[in-house]
Specification:
Elements lengths: L1 H31 L3 H5 L11 E14 H10 L4 E16 L2 E15 L4 E5 L2 E16 L8 E18 L5 E11 L4 E4 L2 E4 L1 H24 L3 H12 L3 E4 L4 E17 L3 E16 L14 E2 L8 E9 L1 H13 L7 E11 L2 E10 L9 E11 L5 E9 L7 H14 L1 E3 L1 H14 L2 E2 L4 E16 L5 E15 L2
Parallel strand pairs: 1-22, 11-13
Antiparallel strand pairs: 1-12, 2-3, 3-5, 4-5, 5-6, 6-7, 8-9, 10-11, 11-12, 14-22, 15-16, 16-17, 17-18, 18-19, 20-21, 21-22
Length: 479
Amino acid sequence: MNFAFTSRVRNNQKAFARTTLAGLTVLGLVGFCPAADAADKPPLAPDIVAPFSTNSRLSASIEFSLPALAADIERDIPQRLASIDEKISCVHRRVLFWKVNANCDVWGYVERSGPVSLYGRGDRVYGSVPIHGALEGQGANRFTARIHGETEASATIEASARPQLGRDWSLDLDFSDGFRWSEPPVLQVMGHEIPLAKYAEPRIGTQLAVVRSRALAAARHLELQEKAAGAWRHAFEPIQLSDSPAVWLQMNPQSVSFAGMRANSRTLRGSIALSGTAETIVGQNPPAMAVTPLPPIDHDISAPGTFDVILPVRIGYDVLKDKLTQAIAAMPPVAGISVRDIDVYPSSGKLVIGLRVAKAADTEPSAGKWVYLSAAIQVDADGRAVRLSNVDTMTDDEGLAPLFEPIAAQLGSKVSFDYGIAYDNLLNAANAKLNRPLKDGFRMEGQLSSAVLQNVYLPANGIVIAVRASGELSILYGM
């Protein structure tokens, strides 16, 4: 018992001695060693932050009206598709002992009875045009003059095409077409039915070839290469994502891929993907980038893909200073000293927190000595706040360090900075800037949504949190 008691007494004496020594050390340093500040102060060494760059993909979509395209095709298709004037053998029968063979003259026409209709579904375009035929048959000599018949029939010419874009920017239409009779034309002669489809169909087939050539000509008139070149030029133009702070987006397209044609009931849309880098620049408007010529089409892709851009969110060191001032003011007094001023700045990837401490009883405004802590920056898992971590005192003085360890511990556990509102404001500003008209009938549409932390930097003017925002960005024509 005596030994245990003696040990406790000695331990308490040692702890008291350390606390007393720390207090005396601080009071002594505060009072008599102001020259030590400059030697102990960590140097200002901010991070050098280059423009934020990421690989990205921009969609350029060109939309055309299917009714307008149908009107272009229809304009070159004549109303009368075929005229028929044939001499056929219309009667083959035995009368008593005689075999009767009679010829008939057949004449008539096949005409377009309605407009050309185009509609799309998925990656195919479907077209149709109704036709109507009227045919008459008449005996060819006086013995068969009483032989007469007439008929009418309707049919629908149908075609489908899968638009494909060649490496030379030519638009090919992979056609499949045909037609079907609602009721085949049949001539009734003396109780016999004479099918007439075989006389009309070759002429209709000839007109189908004309329709195909007209459709290909109309596709060439869409001038896809010229419109794609316009979208390519617009992609090089800098975009101001935010006014305050000034944030600019500079894209550098490098390749073009075909992302397919899509169609619905009224429109045909061709999409290409412009792949390259998207660079975010904070500050002044970047100099104009030289526009390169539109390259040949690269390999096909299934979809344009997402657009990625780095958005920088800045927390000024003055904001950190205010937070630290509030946190330290809420702490209980330590060993008869008070914190008179706080300084925050970066040094070689760490955050330096300078505390000017003085005796609590000292009324001199300039009294005190600077003591420095170092801290790392940690972003929360939800990506909406940063906090201090690994807060340590920056001194080798065994008497001084224990006094500031409680302050360092509380700063690490209680001080956090919410940047969620700042990020939301920057994202909303960027989305507003990405939706705007361009020249020559083009316009831009963009929507950024999801965000992932990219990196954290400590430049001279505040903490910069680089967030990768993903979404869609399109340059549109005719839409």
